[in-house]
């Protein structure tokens, strides 16, 4: 059996290279139903994509953790009627990895009421995301939510840059 490469994976593009072999860009994109088992599968696919990058284990963990929190929020909150989609996009450009999780659900209320006893009412996911990212931007409305998370891991910095 032959080994698959990034180019063989649906939803990914192989890293572009220039000059001394440094990776310039690499992208990942998948769309899946907003269901717990489906978003878990998206996380596994992202983890495989991240494995192709020269990342340290702590950065990979933080990216995977924050992404899964964002995807879990889509599955738990975005579609009260239970029907919808989650889009996961990731890009490595230079020394940054950016992950975008998008839905077309009901949005995040300005005040999120906590309901005792509900397993989805923890209210800590967004705080955790902000803690482990270098930058987090959230755009939400009644037409959906986009969470853009960016990391600049030391392992991706070009040692020759001035």
What does this structure look like?
There is one protein chain. The chain has helices at residues 36-50, 57-78, 125-132, and strands spanning 12-13, 17-18, 22-23, 25-33, 85-93, 96-103, 135-141, 144-151. The protein has 162 residues and is of the alpha+beta class. The strands form two sheets. The protein has a six-stranded antiparallel beta sheet, covered by helices on one side. Strand 7 (135-141) and strand 8 form a beta hairpin. Helix 1 (36-50) runs antiparallel to helix 2 (57-78) and helix 2 runs antiparallel to helix 3 (125-132). The chain is globular. 28% of the residues are buried. Residues 1-10 and 114-120 have low confidence and may be disordered.
Unreliable stretches covering 5 or more consecutive residues: 1-10, 114-120
Helix content: 25-40%
Series of secondary-structure elements, N-terminal to C-terminal = EEEEHHEEHEE
- Mean pLDDT rating: 82
| Biggest beta sheet summary | 6 strands, antiparallel
Strand content: 25-35%
N-to-C CA distance? 44 Å
Strand order of the largest sheet: 1-4-5-6-8-7
Number of strands: 8
Main traits of this protein?
globular; 162 residues; two-stranded antiparallel sheet; disordered N terminus; alpha+beta; six-stranded antiparallel sheet; 8 strands
């Amino acid at each position: 059996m032959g080994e698959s490469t990034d180019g063989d994976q649906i939803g990914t593009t192989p890293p572009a290279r220039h000059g001394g072999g440094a990776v310039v860009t690499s992208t990942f994109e998948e769309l899946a139903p907003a269901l717990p088992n489906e978003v878990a599968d998206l996380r596994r696919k992202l983890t495989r994509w991240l494995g192709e990058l020269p990342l340290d284990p702590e950065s990979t963990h933080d990216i995977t953790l924050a992404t899964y929190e964002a995807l879990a929020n889509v599955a738990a909150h975005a579609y009260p009627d239970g029907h919808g989609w989650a889009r996961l996009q990731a890009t490595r450009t230079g020394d940054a990895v950016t992950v975008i999780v998008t839905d077309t659900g009901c949005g995040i209320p300005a005040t999120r009421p906590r309901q005792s006893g509900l397993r989805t009412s923890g209210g800590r996911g967004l705080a955790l995301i902000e803690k482990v990212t270098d930058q987090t931007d959230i755009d939400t409305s009644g037409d959906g939510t986009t969470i853009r998370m960016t990391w600049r891991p030391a392992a991706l910095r070009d040692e020759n840059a001035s």
